[in-house]
Write a structure and sequence with these properties.
The chain is an alpha+beta fold. It is about 30% helix and about 25% strand. Strands 8, 9, 12, 13, 14, 15 and 16 form a 7-stranded antiparallel β-sheet that branches. A 5-stranded antiparallel β-sheet has the order 1-2-3-7-6. β4 (about 40) and β5 (about 40-45) form a beta hairpin. The two termini are about 20 Å apart.
């Protein structure tokens, strides 16, 4: 699972996403994290070795760690528990999750604890982020007085679009919007506290939720370097946000080459692939406390 193709011994995925293959098993799904990498919504020609295993390990840690805050969709990450023909398949080991199939809530639940990325651009332009009036004079990378909920639409194709809380209410209703906001901030605060103890700052992140019957559960991935902005705590200086320990190194490279951000994407040099892999591994070791094969 290090290319755009799935393991040939398995059936074709029900859905092949940018970085993940999904097998629909009725009331369950098998989610397989490949090593594919996307940037600017384009899947790039070459992969990041072990990326799927790294992100699955991080998600597995956080799903277990946040169970006291919110139930989640995970049934098992052990291939021995998978149904046939997936049971015991070595290629799936460490990169797959058997999960409950939930009704996805079509809002990306973004939480920001620091002002960076698109939030910083909005703040510079308007002094606000997703309807939140922020204090004047904040510097790039500054920690916010409290985390803010800055949701976006959840699009199957194209770019997700930032929305404010009122627009979230219009999509899902007031009660559900309040639950999404409050729960997202609670999980972020927990994640930030745990990550900080392990040497990283969780600048911002995004969550996805679904409904399993009447119960809201956490789905997709959680607090990985693909869904979050991690900074090394020792490097942090307000006004000078440190390098992000995620795929920002790939985005930065792509911003510096002659590419119109449309398919096909350019091939990444080995140096960029290796730097990205090392950063993913750094976060995995810090958060889980284990080497990839440990």
């Amino acid at each position: 699972m290090t290319s755009h193709e799935s393991v040939t011994a398995l059936p074709e995925p029900t859905h092949r996403g940018k970085v993940r293959d999904v097998f629909d098993l009725g009331d369950q799904l098998l989610l397989v994290a490949t090593d594919r990498v996307s940037a600017f919504d384009v899947v790039l020609p070459n992969a990041i070795p072990d990326k799927g295993r790294i992100l699955t390990g991080i998600s597995d840690f956080w799903f277990r760690d946040t169970e006291s805050l919110v139930p989640n969709h995970v049934i098992s990450t052990d291939v021995a528990d998978f149904p046939k023909p997936f049971a015991g398949v070595d290629e799936l080991r460490g990169r797959s999750m058997l999960v409950h199939k939930a009704e996805r809530i079509d809002v990306e639940c973004v939480v920001r604890g620091y002002i960076a990325g698109g939030g910083w651009a909005d703040y510079q332009r308007t002094g606000r982020v997703s309807g939140h009036e922020l204090p004047p004079g904040l510097t790039k990378g500054a920690r916010l007085p409290q985390p803010i909920f800055t949701p976006s639409t959840k699009e199957d194709e194209g770019h997700d679009e930032p929305i404010d809380f009122d627009e979230t209410v219009a999509i899902v209703g007031a009660k559900l919007a309040e639950t999404l906001r409050d729960l997202s901030i609670r999980i972020y605060e927990h994640g930030h506290r745990v990550a900080r103890e392990k040497g990283f700052l969780l600048a911002d992140t995004k969550f996805e939720f679904g409904l399993l019957g009447d119960e809201m559960i956490l789905i997709d991935e959680v607090l990985t370097p693909d869904s979050s902005r991690y900074w090394r705590r020792e490097d942090y200086r307000p006004g000078e946000p440190p390098d992000s320990w995620d795929k920002q190194v790939i985005r930065d490279y792509l911003d510096g080459v002659d590419w119109n951000k449309q398919p096909p994407g350019p091939r990444l040099p080995d140096e960029i692939v290796n730097r990205a892999r090392e950063r993913y591994l750094d976060v995995h070791l810090a958060i889980t406390g284990r080497d990839l094969d440990g």
